[in-house]
Amino acid sequence: MEVTTEMIKQLRAATNAPMLDCRKALQDANGDFDKAVDWLREKGMATAAKRSDRDASNGTVELYSHGGGRVGVMVEINCETDFVARNEQFRTLAHEIALQIAASAPRYITADQIPAAELEHESEIARARAKEEGKPENILPKIVEGRIEKYKDEVCLMRQPYIRDESINIEKLILQNVAAIGESIVVRRFQRWELGESVAG
Questions:
Q1: Cα 93 to chain center, whole Å?
Q2: Is there a smaller number of Cβ atoms within 10 Å at the N or the C end of the chain?
Q3: Per residue in 98-150, pLDDT tens?
Q4: pLDDT at 21 (0 to 100)
């Protein structure tokens, strides 16, 4: 099927991808618009992963208050340029991440930030629980491993299912935005406060 300029323009309008990439996507997809969009998204994800090691020192600190001031979140999100820091899509992403933190109360950004002692403690709890449930000794390690992965999904921001679309996690949401915006995006740090919670001394 012949790829027309009109088709390329439509694809560019829908995806914001460069013209040359739109042409290539349509050629590869034999003119099928939906396949071309998928092709661009996959390429964007791959490019986004490559971008993640670039220096990100601009950005924003997003403040969010929830439930009439019952929960407060402050999160620093970085990007590479001041231009993107002022971009509407980047600002929206920062807000969505603050919302996620307010709703899902993660304790870490990534799994490698969880202290080894905490994982060990969780493993012991999981093992004791599995024994209590009468699970056979030979499958205990597998059960413990599964429960630890589930624990990481709960306490790590990047692994949490996105509250607006549980088919993707926060890491994937960020990668989608990196692909669209074209810059590295990093969640640098966050703090979440809940009214009346005890402060660990």
A1: 10
A2: C
A3: 999 999 999 999 999 999 999 999 999 999 999 999 888 899 899 999 999 99
A4: 83
φ, ψ at 168 (rounded to 5°): -125, 155
3-state secondary structure of 45: helix
pLDDT at 170 over 70: yes
**71, 195 contact by CB (below 8 A):** yes
pLDDT at 183: 84
Domains of the chain, each with CATH number or no CATH: 5-51 (1.10.8.10), 58-109+162-194 (3.30.479.20), 115-154 (1.10.286.20)
Greatest pairwise CA separation for the chain in angstroms: 68
Angle at the Cα of 58 from the Cα atoms of 55 and 62, rounded to 5 degrees = 125
198: left (phi over 0), alpha (psi -120 to 50) or beta: beta
List of residues 6+ apart from 183 with CB closer than 8 A? 51, 54, 56, 79, 80, 81, 84
